[in-house]
Amino acid sequence: MGFIKLVIFGFIGLSVIYLSISLYSRSVRKERLENTFDAENPDGGEAGARDAFVADGMQAYNSSIRPKLIGLVYVVPTVVIGVIIYTINAN
Known about the structure:
- The protein is 85% helix and 0% strand.
- The chain is mostly helical.
- It has a domain at 1-17 and 67-91.
- The longest helix is centred in the N-terminal third of the chain and has 39 residues, at 2-40.
- The two termini are 22 Å apart.
């Protein structure tokens, strides 16, 4: 019963951490794209150009490796806990 509670609460905790990191990473990337556009176009540029630039940059971000690496939030703690449980029970 204790193992099932560990799995359930562990998954919930890791999901909260994953969502927090994912939202933070996307927000930082979007802000960086907006600042890049503002630096390249001090006069403001054409109407809608900034939104298009940010949308294209976010689409490139979604297909990059960074969002996939954030998924390691689930893998690394699971492997570490599995190794700890195995090590303790093997002795």
